[in-house]
Design goal:
It is a single chain. The protein is of the alpha/beta class. The chain has a 7-stranded parallel beta sheet, sandwiched between helices. Strand 4, helix 4 and strand 5 form a beta-alpha-beta unit. Helix 4 packs parallel to helix 5. The protein binds NADP nicotinamide-adenine-dinucleotide phosphate (NAP).
Amino acid sequence: MTQESAGPREPGSSGPSSDLFGLTGKVALVTGGSRGLGREMVLAFAEAGADVVITSRRLDACRALAREVTERTGRAALAYGCHLGHWDELDGLVEAAYQRFGKVDVLVNNAGMSVPYGRPTDVTEKMWDSVVNLNLKGPFRLTSLIGSRMAERGGGSIINVSSTGSIRPTPGILPYAAAKSGLNALTEGFARAFGPTVRVNCLMAGPFFTDVSKAWDMPAVEETLQQHALRRGGRPEEIVGAALFLASDASSYTTGAMLRADGGIP
Ligand SMILES: NC(=O)c1ccc[n+]([C@@H]2O[C@H](COP(=O)([O-])OP(=O)(O)OC[C@H]3O[C@@H](n4cnc5c(N)ncnc54)[C@H](OP(=O)(O)O)[C@@H]3O)[C@@H](O)[C@H]2O)c1
């Protein structure tokens, strides 16, 4: 299905589309696509038929995944190395994506990180800036650039990967929680800015066992997880269903929404 044919279904049409969650003919750009949740989304989108743009700081890691994508799915994959918290590096990413594929149908603002600290007074300006730049400034700029091109072209889906930390901030993640909370606000604002053709949604992740979990105090985390409805953390591949829903026509009447994939936080 092409982007042009991806609009709402005709009133009166009945039955689910056979390709409701499909991404055939689409191009998906995933920031932080080399590892963790981003890698799972890249592979799932390619399996669903999309060509993909994979970007992170480590070009070699992006290239390795691009090769894997093409070997496993036959889809085209562009690897691009850049720092996603650096405003000036994002024009180059956008140019490379449009030069290679001519369009972007799905943008996932996934790259993100927090920095550990003891007390709030231990947070330096440099730490604050690095967290806010990657989780909030970069997504703002990239969504501005790609969202406006999507709107000109007549369609697209943007997914902001936020965190349950944005609605349940704990003392050890305050800059991160504030940045992700800003990302939640951008989701609704950009949904209005680029509607009615471009949809912008938030995928709010809970605790997933990616590389970030290597730094967790596991006994303490396991205890906290007992308060969650599902009483466990997420496997990275468990992000895929929600991501495919938001990326595809399955969510054609969903925009400005927050979808939690968190095992049921207390
Ligand atoms: N895992 C969780 O428990 C959890 C919970 C809530 C929310 N989230 C959110 O989910 C998203 C993905 O998290 P994850 O657990 O998959 O993280 P991850 O495994 O640490 O992967 C992070 C990805 O972002 C890239 N990245 C990091 N800093 C970057 C920078 N400055 N510029 C460009 N790329 C950068 C990394 O690649 P390079 O190192 O090559 O740059 C990597 O591809 C993040 O936004 C995170 O905040 C995760």
